[in-house]
């Protein structure tokens, strides 16, 4: 995402890892055919706990709206998996998915044309600068704000881009161990993060400052989710960071861990957490 800063190296039990090269390698593998890309999306939906939480909130928002011609902004679309999922809920919704990575935007546009979803468009945009006044009924920001230093500017731009009554849905790490940071002397093992996580009151205050009328926030990634994240994401990413040869071992690794991760994700998504390493935030204009 735009304007990412590089953390100076400080002592941490795990040397920070550049996540983007691994993501690009995965994208190169699964972009070979539309069938592989669909499979990749479904695997992400199952493995990534944040997806369970985001889909749950999107289903609530979508109830009674699938026949309405609505406009949706996917603010920081990444691989495009959330745009794919939302575009499958209703062909009456028009979805604009923006990201700063030109290759991902081009790949995503080609894929969505191949599968015939004409209600979707991907575009290269910097969220710090992008604004389309009074245009969207919903904006989605998943694992984006931890990459952007100028977060209040982004919140203001999204607020201006929403129609009256429109909602912004955010998933981002919290300061309760988000980005796998638990002590003051540690830094995130994901090098591209510019902040290790939001305090729940901090992000609510920033959204209010940006103009949102009502803000709700809750924790995700409680104890079940933290175990699932280590098994499904952290350990595989660390292995791939050491050598791409671990791609060969990944199917066998997930064969063992996948059932446990599914159970843990299910438990986390259905539990109210007093604390957690993630945040789910909703804000209305």
From TrEMBL:
Positions of transmembrane segments: 245-267
What biological process terms from GO does the record include? Answer: methylation
What keywords tag this UniProt record? Membrane, Methyltransferase, Transferase, Transmembrane, Transmembrane helix
Q: Looking at the record's lineage, which domain of life comes first?
A: Bacteria
What is this enzyme's class at the first EC digit? transferase
Q: Does the keyword Protease apply?
A: no
Enzyme Commission number: 2.1.1.-
Task: List, alphabetically, the Pfam families matched.
Answer: Methyltransf_23
Molecular function (Gene Ontology), one example: methyltransferase activity
Q: Which PANTHER family match?
A: TRANS-ACONITATE 2-METHYLTRANSFERASE-RELATED (PTHR43861)
What protein is this chain from? Answer: Class I SAM-dependent methyltransferase
